[in-house]
Amino acid sequence: MAPIARLVFRPRITGKENIPREGRVILASNHLSFIDSIVIPLTAPRRVQFLAKSTYFTGTGFKGWVSRQFFTSIGAVGVERGAGQAAQVALDAGKDILESDSAFAIYPEGTRSLDGRLYRGRTGVGWLALTTGAVVVPVGLIGTEEIMPVGSKMPRIRRISVKFGEPIDVSVHGAPDSGRARRKATDEIMAAIHELTGQELAHSYNESPPTTVVQRVKRAIWWRELR
User: Which residues form the Phospholipid/glycerol acyltransferase domain (predicted)?
Assistant: First the structure.
């Protein structure tokens, strides 16, 4: 797929030399579109794995088979989405990938930015890097939301930019069991992503709006505890 995608979409790719060709590496990227998880594996110079919703792998019939084959072929690993224990299970899956000396892609913002701003990074990326000793290559995606805006079913032909930044060694910030070290490592990674993309900073976490009474109550309790 890579040669065809490059011919059709003609992406501007810079910094591929910054990605180590072997060993543990985390590609930490901003997140603007569903297509991001296809763009990164197709433009990186080595096989990249990332986490995807488990529903992409559990469908039935011909459509379910096509979905499983496609997401498996581009390096996706199915996990249950959610907070708390589900989030830790997802991080553990990423840890297992890195400990096999593979490349792993992650979106520190947690979910897509619907307004184009760069949101605060969640410290899971810092924990992964500090726990596994992986180097972090920041990734800046520009224009992917024009290919597949939220709600669209088919991609549009638009030219995008993919920027791979210089590797970051976050081990200087401390041990993975230190919340301060995880926060500082994550902030350094997000600053590098911002330098690549130039996005407006949101200075807050990207939260999906609660859809049920239980979710709204949990969100209110969580914010109160933060204060």
Answer: 25-144
